[in-house]
């Protein structure tokens, strides 16, 4: 039956599902995760604890948190089949997010209860497995591209600390590990975005969690969703000094180009995730790199860009978004910009898994209608 009402383009403003997982208040700049405002969680709970919150509905007790860590740590190694995909992807020069997508799909060979099991127990186990292994995939890719052998994961470190160990092969600075942990908590879930909706649509068919997460990674790859933290660094490098910022931004605006790291589809005020990551970047700049020059430049560029955006594009409410300080945090960890979207996926995976769990409980096929706008009744010519 054809739709009888006009549907907003891109389903803008349409409520597709009910969820207890997260809420985005774009007018007031508030992000709620599992009932808590982001500022109550980021930097105060570990990434694993935040994942537990989304998967179970409550923050873990100390014993529950320790149990979750014990269960997830042994799941970090990836099967040989997945490692072969990662190494071949690196050899062929595939982007890290593509390597992640391809290797993730191979994890279907190693799931709980078989590839078609969508029971609650299977979903929880597979969520732990996916969140544990995506960082291993990216660490292996990063080392392979650099001409170094992948390093096996350790079980005595947190997920974030272990990732940095697998990348660098040395003991991890606790401030760096805490920074990455906070970053992953910050991006763990964010309403009904494109990749999350993709995961829920796949799960609504009673497909399995690995398939749903693989599809979500594919959706995240698109630049309209995955964002552009890498180009933020290019922008800062191009500006070079605070004195150059105003002329540079004015030229970009006059040419009709976007100022990277500013503006958001939902937020009409400063992105609350940017607020959290600005503090993380500040700590990283002084404690880990012992060099605040890039951070100080970024702060000056931010002030200049906000002022000019307000003047040149009044009423657009183009404020700092999560991409701006993501670039500084991940760069401070020594990660190449090509990995930034995949690093985002490592954090968002916990949210995707929570949505799959929720959708499997809902057990209702997501099947919107379309409005036909093509020709009717043309005469066939033979």
List the helices and strands and how they pair.
Blueprint: E1 22-25, E2 30-33, E3 36-37, H1 38-41, H2 47-56, H3 62-72, H4 80-92, H5 96-106, H6 120-145, H7 159-168, H8 174-186, H9 194-204, H10 209-221, H11 223-226, H12 229-239, H13 245-254, H14 272-287, H15 293-312, H16 322-332, H17 340-362
Antiparallel strand pairs: 1-2, 2-3
Helix pairs in contact: 2-17, 4-5, 4-6, 5-6, 5-10, 6-7, 6-17, 7-8, 8-14, 8-16, 8-17, 9-10, 9-17, 10-17, 12-16, 13-15, 14-16
Question: Would you write up a description of this structure?
Answer:
- Strand 2 (30-33) and strand 3 (36-37) form a beta hairpin.
- The mean pLDDT is 91.
- By secondary structure, the chain is mainly α.
- It is globular, with a radius of gyration of 22 Å.
- The chain has two domains: 38-226 and 338-362, Citrate Synthase, domain 1, CATH 1.10.580.10; 229-332, Cytochrome p450-Terp, domain 2 (Orthogonal Bundle).
- The two termini are 31 Å apart.
- Helices cover 57% and strands 3% of the residues.
- It has helices at 38-41, 47-56, 62-72, 80-92, 96-106, 120-145, 159-168, 174-186, 194-204, 209-221, 223-226, 229-239, 245-254, 272-287, 293-312, 322-332, 340-362, and strands at residues 22-25, 30-33, 36-37.
- The protein is built from 17 helices and three strands.
- 46% of the residues are buried.
């Amino acid at each position: 039956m054809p739709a009888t009402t006009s549907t907003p383009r891109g389903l803008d403003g349409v409520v597709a599902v009910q969820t207890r997982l997260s809420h985005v208040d774009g007018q007031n700049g508030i992000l709620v995760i599992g009932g808590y405002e982001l500022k109550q969680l980021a930097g105060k709970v570990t990434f694993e604890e935040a994942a537990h919150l989304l998967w179970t509905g409550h923050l873990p007790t100390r014993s529950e948190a320790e149990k979750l860590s014990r269960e997830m740590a042994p799941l970090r190694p990836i099967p040989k089949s997945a490692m072969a995909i990662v190494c071949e992807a690196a050899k062929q020069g595939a982007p890290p997010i593509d390597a992640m997508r391809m290797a993730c799909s191979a994890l279907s060979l190693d799931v709980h209860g078989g590839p078609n099991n969508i029971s609650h127990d299977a979903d929880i186990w597979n969520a732990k497995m996916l969140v544990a292994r995506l960082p291993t995939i990216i660490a292996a890719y990063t080392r392979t591209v650099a001409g170094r052998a992948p390093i096996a994961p350790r079980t005595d470190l947190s997920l974030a600390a272990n990732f940095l160990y697998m990348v660098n092969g040395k003991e991890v600075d606790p401030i760096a590990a805490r920074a990455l942990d906070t970053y992953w908590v910050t991006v763990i879930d964010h309403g009904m975005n494109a990749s999350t909706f993709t995961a829920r649509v796949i799960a609504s068919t009673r497909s399995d969690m690995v398939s749903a997460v693989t599809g979500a990674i594919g959706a995240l790859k698109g630049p309209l969703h995955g964002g552009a933290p890498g180009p933020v660094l290019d922008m800062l490098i191009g500006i070079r000094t605070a004195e150059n910022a105003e002329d540079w931004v004015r030229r970009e605006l006059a040419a009709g180009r976007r100022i990277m790291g500013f503006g958001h589809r939902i937020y009409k005020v400063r992105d609350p995730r940017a607020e959290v990551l600005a503090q993380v970047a500040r700590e990283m700049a002084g404690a880990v790199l012992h060099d605040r020059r890039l951070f100080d430049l970024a702060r000056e560029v931010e002030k200049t860009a906000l002022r000019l955006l307000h003047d040149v594009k009044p009423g657009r409410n183009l404020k700092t978004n999560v991409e701006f300080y993501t670039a500084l945090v991940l760069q401070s960890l020594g990660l190449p910009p090509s990995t930034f979207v995949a690093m985002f996926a490592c954090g968002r995976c916990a949210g995707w898994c929570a949505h799959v769990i929720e959708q499997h409980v809902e057990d209702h096929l997501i099947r919107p209608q379309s409005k036909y706008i093509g020709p009717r009744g043309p005469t066939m010519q033979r």
